[in-house]
């Protein structure tokens, strides 16, 4: 992506009066940081802004003000608004339209549709798109956008939201997507008022005890396959109930399992409420897991991808292992 794309997005944003914001379902730190930062930034430009985050907003990012700032308009009022006034719709951190979940049709109903993202698989589903696949996080792209528009509007709250997203998607500047730009953007955000220790403390030391118990159960249930190159685990509805943890608390499990020496692939299968199975894949040492996720209609990044398989847990695992056989088989022992 070059600066021109951001200019094109900025040119649409400047005259906009009402902006509706969208992001992907199971919104992570980058998605929520992007939403909070955009709400605050666009409001400071004097615009009317509403963010529509699909599903439930996870609790760990509440310190950014998610309760007050996101999902501030009902579906009914929103559809009324897109019918009667000119609404600019902006999607951030979502690779395709379906990822907007229940808000997909609202996004499509906008007078114009803008897309800002960092997924290489982005389908370009807007009228104007700024996709920077070299950026670690959407929040990095947003800092560039805000710098094009007016960086003096970026206060400590906006900087903190962007920093939280940057930290979440780089695993605190540890993952392979951490580049020179990540540090430069991080440094700039600290300069603009973000506090690295306060944000890290809120995210990493604010876990409910139940989440840790669930992680422990999932680690216990894990198995090493392909001579230790793959670690597989699962989370059943029963494990969630037993630990008292929420679906969102499964996020930390892949992080825990990826610590194992020598594993190239982490796969966690989670039974969703609707009976389907959510598959989270993480790659190490350059092992591309996105090629596995895309086989099942999912997507993401080469080293962090996911998909949903509409079968039971056992069958979903068999399907994914069959794919892994192609790269690491034939022996699974
Ligand atoms: Mn992201």
Summarize the SSE layout with pairings.
Elements: H1 3-13, E1 18-22, H2 29-44, E2 48-52, H3 66-69, H4 75-84, E3 87-92, H5 104-108, E4 112-117, E5 128-131, H6 138-150, H7 156-170, H8 180-191, H9 196-204, H10 209-220, E6 223-225, E7 230-235, H11 237-243, H12 251-257, E8 265-271, E9 277-283, H13 290-295, E10 299-301, E11 304-309, H14 313-328
Parallel strand pairs: 1-2, 1-3, 3-4, 4-5, 7-8
Antiparallel strand pairs: 6-7, 8-9, 9-11, 10-11
Helix pairs in contact: 1-6, 2-6, 2-7, 6-7, 7-8, 7-9, 10-11, 10-12
The chain binds manganese (II) ion.
Explain the overall architecture.
The protein has helices at residues 3-13, 29-44, 66-69, 75-84, 104-108, 138-150, 156-170, 180-191, 196-204, 209-220, 237-243, 251-257, 290-295, 313-328, and strands spanning 18-22, 48-52, 87-92, 112-117, 128-131, 223-225, 230-235, 265-271, 277-283, 299-301, 304-309. The protein contains 14 helices and eleven strands. The protein has 333 residues and is an alpha/beta fold. The N and C termini lie far apart (43 Å). The mean pLDDT is 95. α2 packs antiparallel against α7 (156-170) and α10 (209-220) packs across α12 (251-257). The radius of gyration is 20 Å and the shape is globular. Strands 6-7-8-9-11-10 form a six-stranded mixed sheet, with helices on both faces. Strands 2-1-3-4-5 form a five-stranded parallel sheet. The chain has two domains: 3-204, inorganic pyrophosphatase (n-terminal core); 209-328, Diaminopimelate Epimerase, Chain A, domain 1. It binds manganese (II) ion. The site of manganese (II) ion (MN) has 6 residues, from loops.
């Amino acid at each position: 992506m070059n600066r021109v794309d951001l200019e094109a997005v900025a040119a649409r944003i400047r005259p906009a009066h009402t902006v509706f914001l969208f992001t992907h379902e199971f919104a992570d730190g980058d998605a929520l940081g992007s939403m909070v930062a955009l709400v605050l930034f666009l409001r400071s430009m004097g615009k009317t802004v509403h963010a529509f985050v699909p599903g439930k907003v996870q609790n760990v990012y509440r310190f950014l003000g998610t309760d007050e700032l996101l999902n501030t308009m009902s579906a009914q009022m929103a559809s009324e608004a897109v019918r009667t006034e000119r609404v600019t719709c902006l999607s951030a951190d979502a690779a395709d339209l379906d990822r907007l979940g229940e808000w997909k049709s609202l996004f499509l109903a906008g007078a114009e549709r803008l897309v800002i993202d960092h997924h290489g698989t982005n389908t370009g589903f807007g009228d104007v798109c700024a996709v920077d696949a070299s950026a670690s996080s959407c929040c990095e792209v947003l800092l560039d956008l805000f710098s094009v528009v007016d960086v003096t509007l970026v206060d400590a709250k906006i900087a903190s939201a962007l920093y939280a997203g940057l930290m979440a998607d780089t695993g605190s500047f540890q993952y392979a997507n951490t580049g020179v730009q990540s540090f430069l953007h991080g440094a700039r955000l600290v300069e603009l008022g973000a506090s690295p220790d306060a944000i890290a403390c809120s995210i990493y030391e604010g876990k409910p005890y139940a989440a840790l118990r669930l992680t422990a159960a999932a680690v216990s249930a894990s198995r090493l396959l392909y001579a230790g190159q793959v670690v597989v685990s699962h989370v059943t509805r029963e494990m969630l109930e037993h630990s008292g943890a929420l679906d969102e608390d499964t996020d930390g499990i892949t992080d825990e399992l990826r610590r194992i020496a020598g594993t190239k692939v982490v796969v966690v299968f989670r039974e969703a409420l609707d009976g389907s199975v959510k598959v989270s894949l993480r790659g190490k040492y350059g092992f591309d897991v996105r090629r596995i996720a895309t086989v099942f209609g999912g997507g993401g990044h080469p080293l962090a991808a996911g998909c949903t398989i509409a079968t039971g847990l056992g069958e979903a695992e068999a399907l994914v292992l069959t794919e892994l056989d192609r790269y690491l088989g034939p022996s699974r022992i």
